[in-house]
Amino acid sequence: MEDMETDPSSPEGSAIDRWDQLHEVLASQERRMILYSLKDAPKERRLPLPEAAKAPDSSWDSERAAMRLEHSHLPKLAAAGYVRWERDPFCVQRGRHFEEVEAMFNLIDESIDRFPKSLITGCDIYEELYHDVRQ
Q1: Which residue from 23, 88, 89, 133 has the highest number of Cβ atoms inside 10 Å of its Cβ?
Q2: Contact 76, 31 (CB under 8 A)
Q3: Which residues of the chain fall below pLDDT 70?
């Protein structure tokens, strides 16, 4: 796999920098969907793009989505070290810092029943999980 991830010899930054980067990365639904898809996939598995970024029950133009992913979302995810991706075949897999994202998703999953509905309703990732826990 072509390593489209930041140079591992570059400085990683402080914990504050890592938190800022994590929050910035999670600010996009397409990026969240990619990361959430990888969370449930085996560690070395490559997921096809743009499918891994598609929210359930959403309609979209896959060609436009692929362009947004390649030029905006994937470089941001790779710069944080959360993913590695390649163009041919167009796919993504976990990066060296994926555990940062995975820890955040696991904490959310474990405490979903304590989240207010305003943060759940309409969020494709968590709506089903929230309803399963509440029943």
Answers
A1: 133
A2: yes
A3: 1-12, 57, 134-135
